[in-house]
Amino acid sequence: MISTFMIIGKDDVPLYEASFFNSKKQKEGSSHLSQFVIHAALDIIEEKVLSNENFFLGVVDNFNNFTVSAFVTTGMVKFVLLTENKNVDSTKAFFNDVYELYLKVILNPFYKQNSPIVSPYFDKKVREKFSK
Amino acid sequence: MSVSYSLLEQIIFESVHYVIRTVHSQSKVLDPEETNLRVKIATRFNEKEEKKKKEKEKGIEKDKEKKNENENQKENQQETVGNKKKDQENVPQLEFISSKTDIERNIINRLEIIGYRLGERTAERIAKNKPRFQEEVEKMRFVAKDIWTELFGKMVNNLRTNHQGKWMFQDDDFKLIRNISFTLSEELQNLNHQQNTRKNQQKQKQTTTTTNITMTESQKQILQSYLYIPCGIIRGALSAIGVECTVTGICEQLPACVFTAKIINKK
């Protein structure tokens, strides 16, 4: 299992996906498993959205020793992060940073909302934020 | 709040104005193939539309309607005989009956989509620091207050509902159409003696009475074109929040307009 971050749009369509390989020992084939776990957590996220007013939902699901945490915006755009560490504050800071970046992507008039985010600048910045 | 528009707003307004002018000029130019098709379609729906028009405009323009009906009856008789030449002559008269051309519909659609994308983005951007909305009322209030202040500098004056999925946003002094005045021409009647200048607006605010200007049908039709972008804005903002709806806009008296949003229930 690899640390993975995904942005899922309003109609449950994935908009962005980034995997972070921490060590060389991790196999590439297990990236599908992390995506599967994230999508499986979407149901739980939907339930939590109805009860929770805040954007940041905290830890949503557990799988082995990996935790899934989520952040959902007003427009039902879900940022989902699958990590090993259980530090809530750092994930919250990460989500806020990525949210700022996402808003900048939206402001681009050529970007159609709920379409995949392909900007390499966005990708680079997200990876920088994650490494912190 | 000053009346002057920023440069960007001016550019947008000019481009919208240009598009609308081209729409009205293009609608008079007709292809011969299109006219033949339209003649065939229009003859079938002629009687239905006449009935609809009767129901709508009972007291106002009876004489004009009767004249139109007489013309239509003559046209129907002629077309049943099957004279192609007379069909082409009848086309300009049928124009009054057929509601909108394909070109107009296409442009209206594009204007609405411009507003839709604008509404989506502003909603997502403004809702940054606010908690997520749980109830429909909160969502409508968000559009009426926050988005309106962001885009137009003021809130919607009146927000009403019929508790059956219909919401009406009433703005008594809508910024985008506030400074429109109609010019003297053979087609339009000049009713706007008190043009909406800055002085008048200040006086209006002081005396708390707004001099609303009533308009003719043709003026209303032209003004209708300016309301498609705000309709799209409302629709986009609501869809970004999660409420799917259709929005229509009506302007009865010049600065005041009403946008009606009908919620689409997916069940």
**Subunit arrangement of the protein:** heterodimer
Helix content of chain B: 55-70%
CATH class of chain A: Alpha Beta
The figure for the number of domains of chain A is: 1
Name the beta content range of chain A. 25-35%
Helix content of chain A: 25-40%
In which order are the strands of the major sheet of chain B placed? 1-2-4-3
Largest interface: A-B, 20 and 16 residues
How many DSSP H or I helices of chain B? 9
Low-confidence stretches of chain B: 29-34, 77-98, 186-199, 203-211
Give the CA-based shape of chain A.
globular
**CATH architecture field of chain A:** 2-Layer Sandwich
Shape of chain B: globular
N-end to C-end Cα span of chain A = 20 Å
The fraction of residues in strands of chain B falls at 5-15%
Mean pLDDT of chain B: 68
Spatial sequence of strands, sheet with the most strands of chain A: 2-1-5-4-3
**Span between N and C termini of chain B?**
44 Å
| Cα radius of gyration of chain B in angstroms | 21 Å
CATH topology of chain A: Beta-Lactamase
How would you describe what is shown here?
The complex is a heterodimer of chains A (132) and B (267). Chain A has a five-stranded antiparallel beta sheet, with helices on both faces. In chain A, 39% of the residues lie in helices and 26% in strands. The radius of gyration of chain A is 14 Å and the shape is globular. Chain A has helices spanning 31-40, 42-51, 88-107, 120-131; strands spanning 3-8, 14-20, 56-63, 66-72, 78-83. Chain A has 132 residues and is of the alpha+beta class. Chain A has a single domain (3-127), classed as Beta-Lactamase (2-Layer Sandwich), CATH 3.30.450. Chain A has four helices and five strands. Chain B contains nine helices and four strands, in the order ααααααββαααββ. In chain B, helix 6 packs across helix 9. Chain B starts with 6 loop residues before the first helix and ends with a strand. Residues 29-34, 77-98, 186-199 and 203-211 of chain B have low confidence and may be disordered. The A-B interface holds A 10, 49-50, 52-55, 72-77, 99, 103, 106-107, 109, 112-113 and B 117, 120-121, 123-125, 127-128, 130-134, 240-242. Chain B: Pfam families: TRAPP.
